[in-house]
Every structure is written in structure tokens, then in C-alpha cells.
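Repro:
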Amino acid sequence: MPNNIRVAFLVIVSFTMLSFCSCGKGITFRHDTKVDTTMLTAKQQDSLRFDREHHYSQNYNFVVNKSSLALLKQLPEEALVGMPVDSVILLKGDHIVVADIRVIPHDAEDSIWVQVAHDQQTFGWARESHLLPAVVPDDPISKFISIFSDVHYVIFIVVIILFSAAYVVRVSFRRNAHIVHFNDIPSFYPTLLTLIVATSASFYATIQNFLPDTWREFYYHPTLNPFVTESVLSLFLVSVWAMLIVGIAAIDVARQHLPFGDAVLYVCGLAAVCAADYIIFSVTTLWYVGYVLLAVYVFFAIRRYLHFFRARYECGNCGQPMYRKGRCNACGALNE
């Protein structure tokens, strides 16, 4: 597929996918809108303030993601004064909805109590500090974020990815196979993909460092549509879509330039490098070292491609990219 056709195809695909994300549940992110609070009751103003500060309110849906969650059947005040109380246990995977929220200032442990309901017979109260660690928003994007925010899971994934990346790179070097940055194919798409992944990882960590409340809002009200979010999150979502689109292009050019077996090994190596980039830059940026590493990596990747892997010529007979003049490896035509 010629480059101009490939680019047009990817643009069409990207707009098609974004149009799907703009429908239905895709638009869930909330913009900060000015509300005339003079027309609201004190309770409504408190509810609006709580929603802005905590990013959820009444009728918000959660899913229990811990082994169990204990709820207090009686009112919180009864438990605080030492009256006998009963509890109800929710299990992992139970869907719950926020029914009520109360602020009890004299509770020294946590002044915010949340009433949640699983069904008409199963409901109760829990301190917010006990509730939130045991639940996750009932949205697939939020669940994905929650999984990759778990420290033990992240450590496990990091170890697996680093070992896999080291193995794939080692096999590629031993077989003298093509691999991005070191023995690349004459296309900029693979290099561009690694740069997008590295930049996105660094940008993600930057949001975590400097705009944690923005990320928390995205966690409770996620979307894949970059056109309905704040500017910072829009840039992040655009980079996520760019990963997918450029990734498809990289797989396509690998299939064109290499035999099937070599193309599979190349794509595996590319995925390993991207995974390592994500881990390295998302972690190091949290400690501000990632910004320097990112600048060095961008310089290294672009310089390697321009000096060693950019095809400066094209076969006049078949159009195959060529590193130097001479006989074409694809059709055998002589190019002077």
C-alpha cells in the first residue's frame, strides 16, 4: 500500500473510531459549568460542592473489587454513640449505587459516611475512607485504570515485561533480525510509535504529579473521546489514539517489508520496546528524571533512523525503497 493511500486509510479509520466513541457512553466526562447557586437550597449547594470535590454523588454506580465490604445497617450516629448495630456483607463483584451521603463532624475517624445499596433488601452505611478503597467505578475504563494502579499488579507486570523485552531483543540480535532502533526497516512508523509511547507515558506521569485532581475526575468519569475533555486530557487521549493508529501502520509496513516469520518477530520486538518505554518513562517521570531521559531518547531515536535506516532512494521499476543506488533486491532492476 503506497504511503499516501496508507495515510488516507488511517485518517478514515481514526475518524470512524472517534465517531463511535462520541456516541452513547463514550461522552461521560463532565465540564466545569457555572451554576447559579442562589436558586439552590442549602442541601443542593452542599451536594454540588461534594460532587465537585469528591467527583461522585448520589446515584453514582460502583462495583465491589475487594473480597468483601462490610456495611452498617443502622444510622452512623447510632454506631458512634455505642448502640448495638448490625452489619451486612457485600462480596466482590457486587454492583452498588450511592443512595445517600452524610457529613458527621464529630466522627474523629472520618466525617463522611456514604449509604450504598445493592438491592432493595441489601443496603447500609460505610465511612468514605473504608468504602472507596474497596470499590471501583462501574465503567470498563475505570476498572482498567484501577487494575494498573494496583502496586502488586504493576510490579508483576513490570517484571514480566522487562524479562520478555530482554528475551525478544536478545533473540533478535542473535538471529540478526530486524528490530527498531538497531536494525530497523525503511519506515518511520515504528520509530514514531516508540516516541509516541514514551511521550505519552511521560505525559501520563506529569498529570499524576501536577494535576492529580484532573486525573481523579477522569477516573470517576472516563471517556475515550478527546473532544469532550479538558485540554490536558484531550492531549493525552489524542496520544492514546495515535498509538493505536500508528501501531496499525507499523504492523502494515512490517508485513510489507519482511517475510511473515521475520515480520512477526519484528512486531514482537517492537511491542517489547514500546512496553519497556512505557515502564521506564512513566516511572522515571514521577521522579522528574524522565524529562531528561525523554529528550535523550527522542534525539537518539530520530538520529538513528535518519542516519542508518531512512531509505533515500526508490526503485524506478517497482517502487521499492532502497538505501543506496544499484540493483533492487525486490525486482532485480538496476538503478543508476
